[in-house]
Specification:
51% strand, mainly beta, 4-stranded antiparallel beta sheet, 7-stranded mixed beta sheet, 123 residues
Length: 123
Amino acid sequence: QVQLVESGGGSVQSGGSLRLSCAASGLAYWNLYMGWFRQAPGKEREGVAYADPDDTERSANSVEGRFTISRDKNIVWLQMNTLKVEDTAMYYCSARWGGGNWNRFDRNEYKYWGQGTQVTVSS
């Protein structure tokens, strides 16, 4: 049974920082592709960052320079700095078994999802 467990969300003022973590169980890390997505009310779920098992890591253009993903085997973290009100959303950890040529920011490519952790940024 595959499980993704997130933690670290909360409320912060604009300009502040938060660090999210996600621990995956049930799949070996060597072929496990992981990512972070977020979904604000009334909006589609969008990719924020991903981390491949070969240490390839990337953040979406919308958060680049502010959000950084890191990974150690089956655990991924999302360091979020200089948070903005528009970063308010439910943040989800995602995982997929197997690589290849696919869009890491496409939510439809991931099979496994965490329960989500709320991030609220106030002005």
